[in-house]
Amino acid sequence: MASQFTGIFGVTVTPFTSDGTRVDEAGVGQLVDALIVDGIERIVPCGNTGEFFSLTSDERRLVVAQTVHAARGRAVVVAGVGGSPADALEQARDAARAGVDALMIHHPSHPYVTGEGLLAYCAAMADASGLPVIPYLRSPAIDDTALLSLVRRPEVVAIKYAVNDLPAFGRAVAMASGEAEVAWICGTAETWAPSFWSHGAVGFTSGLVNVTAGPSLELLDALRAGDRGRVIQTWSRIHPFEQLRARRSDGLNVSTVKEAMRQIGRPSGPVRPPSSEVGEAERAEIAAILRSWSMTGAAA
After folding, report:
1. Out of 121, 160, 161, 258, which one is annotated catalytic?
2. Core vs surface per residue 203-216: b (16+ CB within 10 A) or e
3. What is the rounded CA–CA span in Å between residue 1 and residue 265?
4. Looking at CB atoms within 10 Å, which of 30, 244, 282, 292 has the fewest?
5. For 233-244, what is the mean pLDDT?
6. Which pTM value belongs to this model?
């Protein structure tokens, strides 16, 4: 089953109405359809790019259901779940009822996380839903022993690894080799994908695909082909956009994507606090990047 969870994971934004108070249901469907038409085969609603922590429980349920409905079996849908154990369990059950293919389990925002605790947290989601799970690891506090126990769980089909520590990542991949069949996914998107790939990753997450999938798919193809020159060339085209997202300690991560979507006419809506919109200078930079990619509809 792990082979089903390789490649690009498109983490969708959550389109809102113009005042930001409600989910744009039609926009969710339009976005999912656009990503699938563009060639994205794995879609993750309610991830961090989807402003998971700014959504209510009802909104998360709605976004997941609308994504499954719009995908119509044309893409693997991996629903993001998280929060308190009780809330996460409810989300896992709701996602299973909606018909998702797997769960992406957000790393707990709790300040005190241990490997044993994370293992119990993920196991509870798997047991409640009966679905394959993809733990999202964002903390170096998860030691090798706990990580090995996690990948040995039969429900765990992939690990979304989002700690930019390549020696630790390579050690984890080597340690798990022969122990379990899991897909190792770079959880810090295109910027880090080539580096993680060289240490055993077989896929990466992407928020950029909400705007355009072309550069990301080209990067994936080059990585799979081992074409170093094409990897460097494609990465260099993508990197300015990802650098802009990383500004202000990643504070512009989602607002950069949503602004680019607005400029090309894709449904997005505003970001919700505690995020904020990009400024005039960033809007001009985004327009210039889109023009460099020959994106139709880019602002002048």
Report:
1. 160
2. bbbbbbbbbbbbbb
3. 36
4. 292
5. 98
6. 0.96
